[in-house]
Write a structure and sequence with these properties.
The complex is a heterodimer of chains A (299) and B (445).
Chain A: E1 7-18, E2 50-51, E3 68-77, E4 83-84, E5 92-96, E6 100-101, E7 116-117, E8 119-125, E9 130-136, H1 152-158, E10 163-165, H2 167-174, H3 179-198, H4 206-224, H5 229-232, E11 236-244, E12 250-252, E13 270-280, E14 285-295
Antiparallel strand pairs in A: 1-2, 1-3, 1-14, 3-4, 5-8, 6-7, 8-9, 9-12, 10-11, 11-13, 13-14
Chain B: H1 7-41, H2 53-86, E1 100-104, E2 107-111, H3 118-127, H4 138-146, H5 158-172, H6 175-178, H7 189-192, E3 197-198, H8 202-207, H9 221-234, H10 254-268, H11 295-319, H12 326-336, H13 340-352, H14 381-407, H15 417-437
Antiparallel strand pairs in B: 1-2
Helix pairs in contact in B: 1-2, 1-5, 2-9, 2-10, 3-10, 5-9, 11-12, 11-13, 11-14, 12-15, 13-15, 14-15
Chain lengths: 299, 445
């Protein structure tokens, strides 16, 4: 019997940025009106894109969580004991091509059941050198159809399984347990920044002051209304879990760190399970935690 | 003990109640439209010019508050329709074209579509003014100042007095003869916003407003009076002060929100210059002063008018449903609320305020909220859904043309191209959802 590895399991987590308007604003609202997320001052427009890694298109807000999703644990599993691959810890986990949570104000799915599209995974490490890349269509039978034309069944299959209030999940993963205190602390830090900025050239820093004032105003509302969505969503998560298939993957492993050949054909079925949540309406961030399972070829 | 009410008196008093509720529906509908209109005329970006970063940040919450009040006016309209349904009457969404006046008991309230400005906010505050505003209150002084010292609160009691009489009639008319409508035809918040969060008790969620909309069922006298109180307390004619109630869940009244904006406008240096130069009461075919003549803008306006008309037809069928199945109601719900209101009506309204009204001149267009005279309840289920489907076909066609024009380089549409394309995609999807849910043949398959 072969003792070749069966699967590579990559566990990942970290904070991503998502500059997303929120209901009841239209999904293409650029600045924020009626929801609880806004673009302030001279910040770029809200664009819905999920940034798993820092990007100049989505500058991080001050005093937010550290930005970036990384591989935390990698191991081969097979017949025997799992074999850790510590070299992969710290590799970046990214979704490319400007992915969005796509429900379009409930036109495609109910909130909490939306898919992420496109779903183009890229795991990358420079030392050891490694790239794992797969761009998976929502509907393998209709890879060229945009999400807004796809059957709801397909969207729901790749979509989240509803909104869930899980403060324990969030607390364990992020260390955040007291969301109200976190808001109070953030506001205090921003007020200090604003005070410092007030002493500088008024004209030059007018837009920056507007950003700080806007953030402070929204945090103040959250603190004064702790049952409001601004704080409630910090404990809310969406769970995803679906097979990845329908397109060929590419793997570049010149250092042979993977210890085998991963299945990369279009019919190869990978599996991903993760949750997104702990939404930080002020920092426009959310936490991601999950695992990707990739089979090895049997040869 | 009171003598039983005679049949003739009952019918006469009941007819009066129906007439008042129909008037209330037109009023709530009208004030909602004028609030949305003002909100979408406010400048939103520094690139529009004439607005500083500080002014933009001051205006940001104001725009949100005006839209919040507009949503609560939609809720009030829905509650009035629930009241009509509860007493066995047909819901109504009829409304005259802007500008028009609503009269009651010698009082008159003019409703007009005008851009955001100080006079507009004064007018909004007066509409929402409490029944008994205290003469020494700050609000009184502010309003007196902005009305050149000729402030007469008694002139603005219309809404409060109208709902006072509604409440009196509900108290007076025999409950068993008045509330004859089917309880299952009532709509509550979860019917309109069916989202849920695991880990939160659904029954607790059902009692909470969604996006400030708290729809409640009317099944008897007590629930009817609660609904009338809710409407009054939230804004129109709250009896005493109109200020915020206590506690972390409290929301300021409409009057308080408008007064806060009014008081902050001067210090923030914000006035009509910080609004887009939108025509008052713009229409495609109305009086010359409001008529939009730019040929491209007229196409966008025609799409807006078609979508608004379709929305009203869907809402009428939704509130007056007779033989609809649960799936039918789902289809109508989707065609009416999310995404139609948020992702079609509002974006198109905003687009219009950025488009030229005429070939020359600085004015821009805006949403007309015109209701054609032929818009009425569609009584036959199958024909109603087929007609709605055909209307979607036409709207998809119009939106697709605009999306294509924007991509072909039509100058005035270029900055709005993404938005118009997204309106097209939403209409395309909404048509598919309506057709599938209602069991109709789908257009594009």
């Amino acid at each position: 019997m072969s003792d070749a590895p069966v699967s590579l399991i990559l566990e990942f987590d970290g904070w991503c940025m998502i500059r997303q308007p929120t209901d009841p604003d239209p999904y293409d609202e650029r600045r924020g009106v009626s929801g609880y997320t806004f673009a302030f001052g001279d910040e770029p427009d809200l664009n819905r894109v999920i940034y798993m890694q820092p990007s100049p298109d989505s500058p991080a807000r001050s005093h937010g969580p550290p930005h970036g999703v990384f591989i935390r644990k990698a191991q081969q599993v097979g017949k025997g004991d799992p074999r850790p691959i510590p070299e992969l810890e710290g590799a970046t986990f990214d979704l490319l091509d400007e992915p969005v949570l796509e429900n379009r104000n409930w036109a495609l799915t109910l909130p909490g059941y939306e898919p992420i599209t496109p779903f183009h995974i890229r795991i990358e490490s420079s030392s050891p050198s490694l790239v794992i890349d797969r761009n998976v269509p929502l509907d393998p039978d209709k890879p060229d159809l945009p999400a807004w034309k796809l059957d709801e069944d397909v969207l729901v299959e790749k979509g989240a399984r509803g909104l869930a209030l899980e403060p324990e999940t969030v607390g364990r993963a992020t260390g955040l347990w007291d969301f109200l205190q976190a808001a109070v602390d953030r506001r205090a830090a921003l007020e200090k920044d604003l005070k410092a900025l007030e002493k500088k050239n008024k004209k030059k820093h007018e837009a920056k002051r507007a950003i700080l004032r806007g953030r402070i105003a929204e945090l103040t509302y959250a603190i004064e209304h702790p049952k409001d969505r601004r704080l409630l969503v910090r404990a809310v998560i969406e769970r995803f879990g679906f097979p990845l298939t329908g397109s060929a993957a590419s793997v570049d492993d010149p250092d042979g760190v993977l210890g085998g050949t991963l299945a990369t054909s279009a019919s190869a079925t990978w599996r991903i399970d993760f949750w997104m949540g702990a939404w930080d309406a002020d920092a426009l961030s959310c936490f991601v935690e999950g695992a990707l399972s990739i089979p090895y070829t049997s040869s | 003990m009171n003598a039983p009410m005679s049949d003739a008196v009952f019918m006469r008093r009941r007819a009066r109640l129906v007439s008042l509720l129909e008037q209330a529906a037109e009023l709530e509908h009208g004030v909602m439209c004028q609030y949305i209109f003002a909100a979408v005329t406010m400048k939103k970006t520094h690139e529009e010019g004439g607005v500083s970063w500080a002014q933009l940040e001051a205006m940001r919450p104001w725009r949100g508050h005006i839209m919040l009040v507009a949503r609560e006016e939609m809720e009030h309209l829905g509650l009035v329709l629930n009241l009509l349904t509860a007493i066995g009457e047909a819901p109504t969404l009829n409304r005259r074209a802007f500008p028009f006046s609503v009269s009651y008991g010698g009082l008159s309230q003019e409703l007009t579509l005008e851009p955001f400005s100080l006079p507009t906010m004064v007018r909004f505050a007066l509409i929402e003014m409490p029944e008994k505003l205290l003469p020494d209150s700050e609000a009184w002084k502010t309003l007196a100042e902005h009305t050149n010292g000729v402030f007469d609160p008694a002139r603005f009691d219309l809404i409060a007095q109208l709902y006072d009489e509604v409440a009196e009639l509900i108290q007076e008319l025999p409950e068993d003869r008045l509330f004859i409508g089917p309880p299952e035809a009532q709509f509550t918040t979860p019917d309109i916003f069916p989202g849920a969060i695991r880990g939160i008790d659904p029954s607790a969620m059902a009692k909470k407003p969604a996006y400030n909309v708290a729809m409640r069922a009317v099944i008897d006298r007590a629930s009817a009076l609660e609904v009338v109180d809710q409407i009054r307390e939230e804004g129109e004619g709250a009896k005493e002060h109109g200020g915020p109630t206590e506690g972390p869940d409290a929301q300021p009244s409409h009057f308080q929100l408008f007064m806060d904006i009014l008081e902050d406008m001067g210090p923030a240096g914000v006035g009509a210059e910080q609004a887009r130069p939108v025509l008052a009461n713009p229409t495609l075919d109305g009086p010359a002063e409001g008529r939009v003549t730019h040929p491209v803008t007229r196409k966008v306006m025609a799409l807006f008018d078609a979508c608004y008309e379709t929305l009203l037809l869907s809402l009428m069928r939704y509130f007056a449903h007779t033989d609809e199945s649960e799936r039918d109601l789902d289809a109508l719900q989707q065609a009416s609320f999310f995404p139609m209101m948020t992702t079609v009506i509002r974006p198109l309204a905003e687009c219009l305020t950025l488009l030229p009204a005429r070939e020359d001149g600085p004015e821009t267009a805006g949403p007309s909220f015109v209701i054609p005279p032929g818009v009425r309840f569609l009584p036959h289920r199958d024909a109603a859904f087929q007609l709605l489907s055909m209307r979607y076909d036409a709207m998809v066609e119009m939106a697709q043309e605009l999306s294509q024009l924007s991509q072909l380089g039509v100058k005035v549409l270029a900055p709005l191209g993404d938005r118009l394309t997204q309106v097209y995609e939403t209409l395309w999807r909404s048509r598919l959802n309506l057709q599938r849910t209602a069991g109709l043949a789908t257009t594009d398959e």
